[in-house]
Amino acid sequence: MSASLPLPGAAAATPATSSPVAQAPINPAPPSVLQVETGTPAPASPGLATAAPATSGLGTSGSATPAPATPGLAMLATLGLIAAISGLLVATAYEYTAPIIAEKERLATEAAVLRILPGAVAKRDFLIDAEGRLTPVDPAAAGGAGASAAGGGLVYAGYDAQGQLQGLAFTGVGTGYAGPVEVLFAYDPQRQLIVRSKVLKSTETPGFGDKLDTDPVFLKNLEALDARLDATGQALANPIVTVKNGTKTQPWQIDAITGATLSSRAMGKAANQAAQRAAPAIQRSLGLLTQPSP
Q1: Closest alpha carbon to 243 in 259, 257, 233
Q2: Among the listed residues 181, 252, 177, the one whose alpha carbon sits nearest the alpha carbon of residue 213
Q3: By CB neighbour count within 10 A (0-12 exposed, 13-18 middle, 19+ buried), where does 138 fall?
Q4: Tens digit of pLDDT for each residue in 92-134?
Q5: Which of 13, 119, 204, 241 has its CA 20 to 30 A from that of 138?
Q6: Are the C-beta atoms of 137 and 154 separated by less than 8 Å?
Q7: In whole angstroms, what is the distance from residue 105 CA to residue 102 CA?
Q8: Which of 44, 41, 37, 43 is closest to 59 using CA atoms?
Q9: How far apart are the C-alpha atoms of 269 and 237, rounded to whole Å?
Q10: Alpha-carbon distance 154 to 197, whole Å?
Q11: How far apart are CA 272 and CA 278, in angstroms?
């Protein structure tokens, strides 16, 4: 077969050529490990802007920049100065308020003693000495309130307008449900009985602990509570105790309040502790106590 000849007038066919394809720029090779460790910048690629190195907290050696040292001595000196000033302020406040507090306690105790000893219009304070006897307390040397009532070292004697002894009072402390209960007791030295009581300080639950001062049935226990001494005169013949409500059979027992058993036991402990300490000293010193009050 013969080869085809081009037709006259026809343009010669131009062989097809592909359009040039744009080549994407080749990414530069990542920096080597050596460059990262030494901080040497990687070489810039042609046609690309060189990026500014990022600022970091690393130095040229790659280690963190050390923080400034804490001024330890200056801090300790500042704290010491603050502590010294605070201590001085506390001491100054105590020295200023201590006499005021003592005087208020003295007046409160005096009012309670005169309230619990009917007929008394004045009181004298006596201290139980090392020999178990009563020694008159000099009011001027007693520091206002004298020995702390809670400390149990004082016996208060109440006198009428003619200076005649109307009765004695002393304090005792017992531990209740929420803490100590401090009670003032009136004592009849002739009958050797506790005849009244008055709670001075208490942290017992309101509605329960305050029954020690308000419950009329319970207060009957303290109208003739036996505090007689034994044959030696050194202690009570029968320790004062609190018993379960409704089980009292002896005059030295206290019938507890239902629902306030722990508070009732605190009263019994306070009465026993106070009478064991004060009753022997009172009986040994009746001659001194019955002298007319000056």
Answers
A1: 257
A2: 181
A3: exposed
A4: 888 888 888 878 877 888 899 999 999 999 999 999 998 899 9
A5: 119
A6: yes
A7: 5
A8: 37
A9: 16
A10: 16
A11: 10
- How many angstroms separate the CA atoms of 196 and 112, rounded? 11
Tokens standing for residue 276: 């064991």
> What is the rounded CA–CA span in Å between residue 248 and residue 242?
8
End-to-end, the C-alpha distance of the chain in Å comes to: 167
| pLDDT classification of 147: cutoffs 50, 70, 90 | very low
- As a whole number of angstroms, the distance between CA 83 and CA 66 comes to 32
Q: What is the pTM of this model?
A: 0.65
**Residue 154 buriedness (CB in 10 A; 0-12 / 13-18 / 19+):** buried
Residues 6+ apart with CB under 8 A from 20: none
Report which residue type is found at 115: R
Helix (H, G, I), strand (E, B) or coil at 125: strand
Torsions phi, psi for 135 (to 5 deg): -125, 130
Whole-angstrom distance, CA of residue 289 vs CA of residue 173: 24
